[in-house]
Each structure stands twice: as C-alpha cells, then as structure tokens.
Amino acid sequence: MNLLHSPPSRAAIVALAAAALAYAGALFVLQREPGFSVVEPLFLFAMLGVVFPLLAWLCTLKRDAASAPLPERHQLPRVLVYLAVFALAILGWGFTAINTTFPDEPLQSIVQVVVKLVTMVVLPAWLFLGFRLDARATLSSRRLLLVFVVMSLAYLAMQAVFGRGLITLHELSPAASTLAWAIPLCWLWQTLEAGLCEEVLFRRVLQEKIALASGSQVAAVAWASLLFGLAHAPGLWLRGGHLMEGVAHATPAWAIAYSIVMVAPAGIAFGVLWARTRSLWLIVPLHGMVDLLPQLAPFIRAWTGA
C-alpha cells in the first residue's frame, strides 16, 4: 500500500484517531504544569508532524520501484514486548546505572553506544529479522542522495533558526581547527549512536512489523511514531530528563505526556521516509544530520574536556 496514495483503511483511521486522542490527552496533562505554554508543542507538531512529513512525501514522489515488502512474519506481539522491556531496562534503569558507573566522558558515551548497538541493532536484527536489514529500497541511489540533501538542509535550517544548538556552540566558542574535525566526527557519531540504533529498532523492525500486521503504512507510521515517543518516557522519568525541562518533580504521567507531545512528532517524517523509500541508507545518515547541531557542543565537550 502506497502511503498517501490510497484511501485510508480502517486500520489507518483507528491509528490516526488513537494518536490524536493520545496527543490531546497529553497536552491536557502538560498544560497543568506551572508555566507551561502550548505554543512550543504546537509549533513543534506543525513543523515535525506536518511540514517535514509533507516535504518527505513530496521528495519521494515518482518512485523508481514498487513498494513491495520482503516476505517475513510480523511477530508484532514479540516486538512490542521487546520494546517495553528495552524502554524500562535500558532507556530507564540501564542508562541510569551506566551514568552512575561511568561518570566521566568520553567513556560514558562509548559505553552507552555499545549498549545501544547491542540492544537496538544486534538483538532486534537477530530476533526479528534474521540479520536481514535490507528491505528493497524504492528509489535509486541518486534519488536517495537528493532526498538526503533536501531533507538535511531543511532540518539544519530549522534548527539554526529555532534550535539552541548554535547558541550553545557560540557559548563554547571552539576554535576553527576544533570545528574542522568535530563537525564530521559528530555527524558520524550521531549517525551510529542515534541514526543506526533508532532507525533499525523503530523503523526497520517496529514500523515494518506494524505495517505487515495491519496492512497499512499510514497506521504503521502513526503507531510507530507514538511508540517511539513513549519509549523515551522511562528515561525522562528515571534519568532526570525532567530537570532539563524545568520540571522539579517528574511523575510517570508527566513523562508519558511529554514523550507523546515533544518526542513522538520527531518520528513522523522518518516514518514517512521509511514507508516510501524503505532505505536505511537514507534515514540512518539523515538522522545523524538532524542531531548534528543540537549535539555538536556536547560532543566537543565530551571529547576535549572543554
């Protein structure tokens, strides 16, 4: 089924309705926090939930091949159990233990990426894919490169204007010689640590299995984006992520609501790109590019001790 080319199925309507209700309920929970404004989350949703998915769809018009999934079992119940255990054991308690045991950088980051690679790439690929990550890309290499360039420039422009990445980089004031090696290495690091790990687990495994089970790419994008956000809730609650958001006392309800409103929209455009291109060669390095500006200053600090 071609995303946005066919009338929505019942599975798609149910998924979109559930996502909308979850988002509305999460906004209701968050607006009870002192000083909370709906402006930022609504702007974020407009950009990441509407503008960028639409751009992704426009960039992938006139595909070079039919979108035919590889023959494989959906195994969706097992995938959902694995995701729940992973979110609690790794993103919640696991990284808390890592941060306590390895407080110094860059060792902490190295241990984290090793754990991520094992739990988000190696184990899911073994358990659910038989180590077969390919999924029959529907665009030629030249077209994929064009999509990568267009989407990268769009994300970088948005972050340069609205994000804090350039501000924190300016505050750090790294030398030009530092930037010369830090920019490409940070992109490669984010491509590995965030791109490969998150896209294999959430797009190649989770979204693909939902699409196989539901018969709807629209439903798969909606459910996978929602679960992508929810998987971050244990970390927000258990690892002190609430403090960076100005919330003194986090609750599970706050963590779930925040993950739905502020994290889940980021997965929509990548879900559209996966559904329409089926190419990890596109979405993995693109994810690294998306995280480049926000993570550049922390990367320099971690690897130089600045």
From TrEMBL:
Start and end residues of each CAAX prenyl protease 2/Lysostaphin resistance protein A-like domain: 183-292
GO terms classed as biological process: proteolysis
GO molecular function per UniProt: peptidase activity
Keywords of this entry: Hydrolase, Membrane, Protease, Transmembrane, Transmembrane helix
Transmembrane region(s): 12-30, 42-59, 79-98, 110-131, 143-166, 172-189, 210-233, 253-275
Pfam families in UniProt: Rce1-like
InterPro entries from the UniProt entry: Rce1/LyrA-like_dom (IPR003675)
Signal peptide stretch: none
Domain of life: Bacteria
Descriptive protein name: Membrane protease YdiL (CAAX protease family)
Gene source species: Agrilutibacter niabensis
